[in-house]
Amino acid sequence: MQTPGPTSYQRARSVEAAIASLAEHGPGARVVAGGHSLIPMMKLRLASPELLIDINDLDELAYIRREAGLVRIGALTRHVDLLRSELLAELFPVFADAEQVIADPVVRNRGTIGGSLCQADPAEDLSGVCAALKADVVLQGPGGERVVNMSEFHVGPYMTAVQAAEILTEVRLAVRPGAGSAHEKLERRAGDFAIAASSVAVWIEGGTITDAGVALAAVGPVTIDARRAQEHLRGQVPSEALFEEAGRIAAEESMPMPDTRGPEDYKRHLVGVLTKRALRKATARALHQEA
Ligand SMILES: Cc1cc2nc3c(=O)[nH]c(=O)nc-3n(C[C@H](O)[C@H](O)[C@H](O)COP(=O)(O)OP(=O)(O)OC[C@H]3O[C@@H](n4cnc5c(N)ncnc54)[C@H](O)[C@@H]3O)c2cc1C
């Protein structure tokens, strides 16, 4: 099936109006942002919303700004703007790493960070990036705003903590000293979803890793928050042996399924290699060295 079923369409004039419309129409209504995940799913009849609420006119949701110890990214910020942001390149280069290998310019010109996170595809690169950075997301609903950490955002395959009539409005990243980050992905061909990908963040002070984030894409039913690997890195002095062992642990924590992209043991091997490479690069960036 290559054509969507019948659906009604509305253009939201404000965040509040979009939320009110979601509340009024119930589970048959869906927000559409870039449409690069939802529309293909509608064409395949994997999704058949009765009403599409288009939020593309909500310019107030499209921004990347630094304020009071945080970088705030509006939900409607497009992939291309994440790729080109000088602020993100300076503070969180993991975004540019990932955006260079997400899809193609056509998708990157329209797809949004809010749509990427809310799609909750276990192979979504930005979910790994935001999980590794320990981002918070802001969800706005009829009762006001709440803040959810990425560690609690993905509750199952294609399922998130977003409740009925809620909209993801913002992603928040804490600016902390000694940060370095990197994303490593292997894909079958340019622009494809990952065979496996590893997003890494380290925070280094006085030569010691004070905190670490490791998140894996495409190797489990959800984005994998590799907590044992992070624990292994915390409090340690960076070294090749440490990265090797953290990669080995991350591979253990992954839950890959065999498919057309490769068998389980191959994907697990990739997790180890990609995590080690990402740790090497993130650490070099944290120490202001060339990767
Ligand atoms: C050919 C192709 C290749 C791709 N390759 C990659 C890749 O390599 N790596 C990768 O990570 N991704 C890839 N993608 C996915 C791409 O990144 C999509 O843009 C992204 O997944 C969804 O963003 P969107 O804005 O288009 O969301 P939409 O399709 O508009 O929405 C997706 C879901 O999120 C919901 N939603 C959207 N915005 C909000 C919001 N603010 N609040 C609450 N719910 C919301 C929608 O209701 C829907 O359920 C690819 C897509 C295509 C078509």
List the helices and strands and how they pair.
Layout: E1 8-11, H1 15-25, E2 29-32, H2 38-43, E3 51-54, E4 64-67, E5 70-74, H3 79-84, H4 86-91, H5 94-99, H6 105-110, H7 113-119, H8 125-132, E6 136-141, E7 144-149, E8 154-156, E9 159-160, E10 167-174, E11 179-187, E12 194-205, E13 208-217, E14 224-225, H9 227-233, H10 240-253, H11 264-286
Parallel strand pairs: 1-3, 2-3
Antiparallel strand pairs: 4-5, 5-10, 6-7, 6-10, 8-9, 11-12, 12-13, 13-14
Helix pairs in contact: 9-10, 10-11
The structure holds flavin-adenine dinucleotide.
Residues 30-38, 40, 75, 102-103, 107, 111-112, 114-116, 118-119, 124-126, 162, 167-168, 191-193 line the site of flavin-adenine dinucleotide (FAD).
CATH architecture of the largest domain: 2-Layer Sandwich
* Proportion of helical residues: 25-40%
Outline = globular
Order of strands in the sheet with the most strands? 4-5-10-6-7
> Structural class given helices, strands, pairing?
alpha+beta
Largest sheet: 5 strands, antiparallel
Bound ligands, each once:
flavin-adenine dinucleotide
Give unreliable regions as ranges. Answer: none
Termini Cα gap: 46 Å
In round numbers, the mean pLDDT is 96
In the CATH scheme, the class of the largest domain would be Alpha Beta
